[in-house]
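About this split. The held-out portion is used to measure sequence recovery: a designer receives only the structure tokens and must propose an amino acid at every position. Recovery is the fraction of positions where the proposal matches the reference. Here is one held-out target exactly as it appears in the evaluation file.
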């Protein structure tokens, strides 16, 4: 368990997983270029200590660039990530409220609010502007006050204005629309620079109404310490580096985009709600955190991997009680393609599994099901199963038009997709025909 982001950065430094960058960098492209490179070489997280025009600030990037960094953030061995994440996500520890905390060391309210003083980063070559990309948003249901945590990008529009791209198939987007129906804005706090459990917990695919602070508590094994905001009725992590408090402006929308999105393509300009910022509080010598997305693999992909794998695993277990492994693939952006291995007991159960998983609507377009003798983390073995265990006329399922939280540019209309499934399992009665050729004694070979 880490007390805060700074405690975690010390831990990373001890493990050689944090690189301090002393040379001057521009918040436009140069920081993002560093994160791109470290993501591609599976390098360390980067702490930029000299950002042009932002004396006194440090910018952190690529904190979750690799699976190794996710494992360090959760304090679990990399090879046990799915198994351990499944248990930790279920633990649930309620947060605790404290009277004050480091995030209150500096307070800007009223005319002092100025987002231009924050080193907000411009990432991809064709992005329309600078975006806050890894702030954890906290909002409450306008009817019953149920709290929600999630991450939504925000485009810098002015000294006290940000866009807030939260579509209605995400919980915060639904809350914004519910508030608008009551002719009100939604109070939203954005916490930037929090410890890993809070960021990872915000990505859990838990139902509407479940407070992800409880999930974060379970992931860190201790309650998250919260303080009240200054200008809105929302609670934020007391140890956060920065908190942006604001209220959405009912009915107002702005063009948001193009923006280099997680499928590795640019999204068109969307019509996004607008947040009026009412206060900014922060620690002294604050660390501003940014995150990269774009072509996989980036931290936007790694952060969602286990949340997606977990919800898929739990759903798959309802259909086939002997699921061996679930792997959302990197080329599939950790969202669009899942491979599932099962111990098959009935010839058609893979087909039920395909339908159930496509119906989740979490971004899946492709479900590949194989037998439990296939190592689904090895792309060659998966392709081998497809090459030798399926016939396209018999074993393919195509489902048109499903509601789906996807930014796949090939879809016919936004947030809808066709889905396809491949049953590459062998017939129960005919396993011997498909037996893998194995050579006895390979494990005894010591000369290579
Ligand atoms: C770095 C990062 C950036 C993200 N940006 C967005 C975004 O701009 N819009 C969005 O809808 N989801 C975004 N997400 C995904 C949501 O935060 C995620 O689906 C979350 O679980 C939604 O929470 P909810 O289930 O409470 O709605 C982002 C995720 C990460 C890790
Ligand atoms: Mn939620």
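Reference sequence for scoring:
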């Amino acid at each position: 368990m880490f007390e805060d982001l700074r405690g975690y950065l010390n831990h990373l430094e001890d493990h050689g997983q944090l690189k301090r960058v002393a040379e001057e960098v521009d918040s436009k492209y140069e920081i993002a270029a560093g994160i791109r490179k470290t993501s591609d070489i599976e390098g360390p997280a980067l702490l930029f200590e000299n950002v042009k025009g932002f004396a006194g600030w440090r910018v952190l990037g690529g904190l979750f660039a690799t699976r190794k960094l996710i494992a360090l953030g959760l304090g679990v061995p990399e090879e046990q990530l799915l198994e351990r994440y499944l248990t930790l996500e279920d633990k649930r520890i309620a947060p605790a409220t404290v009277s004050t905390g480091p995030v209150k060391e500096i307070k800007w309210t009223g005319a002092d609010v100025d987002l231009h003083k924050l080193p907000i980063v411009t990432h991809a070559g064709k992005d329309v502007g600078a975006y806050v990309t890894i702030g954890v948003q906290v909002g409450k249901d306008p009817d019953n006050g149920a709290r929600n945590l999630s991450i939504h990008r925000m485009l810098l529009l002015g000294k006290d204005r940000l866009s807030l791209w939260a579509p209605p198939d995400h919980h915060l987007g639904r809350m914004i629309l519910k508030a608008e129906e009551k002719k009100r804005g939604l109070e939203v706090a954005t916490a930037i620079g929090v410890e890993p459990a809070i960021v990872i917990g915000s990505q859990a695919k838990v139902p509407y109404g479940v407070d992800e602070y409880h999930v974060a508590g379970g992931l860190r094994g201790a309650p998250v310490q919260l303080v009240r905001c200054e200008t809105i009725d929302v609670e934020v992590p007391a140890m956060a580096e920065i908190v942006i408090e604001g209220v959405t402006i009912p009915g107002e929308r702005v063009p948001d985009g193009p923006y280099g999105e997680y499928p590795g393509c640019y999204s068109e300009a969307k019509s996004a709600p607008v947040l009026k910022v009412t206060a900014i509080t922060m620690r002294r010598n604050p660390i501003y955190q940014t995150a990269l997305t774009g072509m996989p693999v980036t931290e936007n992909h790694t952060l969602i991997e286990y949340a997606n794998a977990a919800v898929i695993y739990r759903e798959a277990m309802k259909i086939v009680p002997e699921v061996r492994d679930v792997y959302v693939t990197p080329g599939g952006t950790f969202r669009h393609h899942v491979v599932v291995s099962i111990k098959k007991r009935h010839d058609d159960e893979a087909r039920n599994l395909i339908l159930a998983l496509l119906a989740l609507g979490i971004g899946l377009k492709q479900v590949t099901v194989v037998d439990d003798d296939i190592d689904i983390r090895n792309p060659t073995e998966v392709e081998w199963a497809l090459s030798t265990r399926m016939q396209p006329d018999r074993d393919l399922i195509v489902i048109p038009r499903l509601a789906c939280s996807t930014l796949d540019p090939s879809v016919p209309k936004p947030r809808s997709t066709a889905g396809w499934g491949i049953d590459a399992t062998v017939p129960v009665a005919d396993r011997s025909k498909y037996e893998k050729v194995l050579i006895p004694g390979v494990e005894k070979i010591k000369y290579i």
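Annotator remark: The CA atoms of residues 51 and 440 lie 59 Å apart.
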